[in-house]
Amino acid sequence: MKLPPQPATVYELDQYGNPVLHSKVSATRDRVTKRNPTSYSLNKAQHKPRKARDYIQGATTRSGSLNEMVRAYGQNRTSPMTIFTSSQDTYSERNQVPGYRFRKVSFLDDTKVLDSNPRDDGQRCIRLTAFITKSDEDHMDPKVYVEQQVYEDMDNNIIVHELDFRGRIQLDKEYVFRGCGDEDRVLGRLDLRLRIVSLEQESFNNYLRGHTTYYGYDMNDYIYVDEESISKESPHTAWRNRTQAPYKISLNAKDLQILLKAKQGNRETVDIPSGEGIELLRLSFAGQGYPTEDKLSAGDLDVFVIYRP
Fold it and tell me: How far apart are CA 266 and CA 196, in angstroms?
């Protein structure tokens, strides 16, 4: 036996699309129940249009260790290679590349920042400021180098990136280079957010004088003494690259003998920078080394006094 058709039974729905208790009604042709649009997800997350990016996505032309990148840059340039860094580590033994000259520029005014309010890409970053001269603003293939601190086998190592701006640098924009920021032991390698500031040549030079460390411009000279010459007060000849340096130094004979006796008694203090012998004394003369190509600075002159039996 067939039953006559009955009106459909419907319920009012809540904001999640679930039936509301005691809200059952029968449908009629002249009644239409309108459902309020529900959220896309149960947490009521509303999908808002994404804002236009206020930064430019950059890339790297090439990357490598400090040694590799400095050697690849070469020395036949009118100005030394410039590397921008947020690190305050200027220890020469870790930063030197034997036989090559370059400079590091460190911007000290809050350059190393973990973004406490991440952008929509959800990444944290390192912020850094680099500087160019007004004459470089129209350069279609600018070369800017930045330093990245990374961890390898628990050691802190240096990677240098050659940045690709994909044409002329836009000074009013911030550039983002994925994974080129210093490495965090928990978060991994962070993004680099780079801002470029253009300065007049004089202002650029003045800035570099106070924020730049030059490497490879130091000059090392050696004075050698033996059992006979260590007791003499006469001027000693200094040697530079197997030739005589253009000066001589007079040293107090008694002081040299005291130093020799002390170092022979404590072999842990013995340092041998060149060949066999004992380093008795090291004299440093700031700014008396090789001048830089940009004429903004000069290396130091280090004089080693070595005892050879």
Answer: 53
**β-strands 59-65, 155-164 pairing:** antiparallel
For the question of whether the overall pTM of this predicted structure is more than 0.85, the answer is: no
Residue 290 contacts residue 299 (beta carbons within 8 Å):
yes
In single-letter form, the type of residue at position 106 comes to S
Residue 194, beta-bridge partner list: 128, 175
Among candidate residues 288, 281, 285, 269, the one with its CA nearest the CA of residue 223 = 281
85, 203 in Cβ contact below 8 A?
Answer: no
For the chain, the DSSP string reads -PPPP-PPEE--B-TTSPBPTT--EE--TT--PPPPPPPSSTT----PPPPPPSEEE-EEEEEEEHHHHHHHH-S-SSS-EEEEES-----HHHH--TT--EEEEE--SS-----SS--TT---EEEEEEEEEGGGTT-SS--EEEEEEEEETTEEEEEEEEEE-SSS--TTSEEEETT-SPEETTTEEPEEEEEEEEE-HHHHHHHHHHHEEEES--EEEEEEE-TTGGG--SPEEEEETTEEEEEEE---HHHHHHHHHHHHH-GGG---SSSSSEEEEEEEETT-SPBPTTSS-B--EEEEEEE--
What residue has token string 């978060």? 187
pLDDT digits (tens, 9 = 90+) for 185-236: 888 899 999 999 999 999 999 989 889 999 999 999 999 999 899 988 889 9
Q: Which bin fits 206, alpha (ψ -120 to 50), beta or left (φ > 0)?
A: alpha
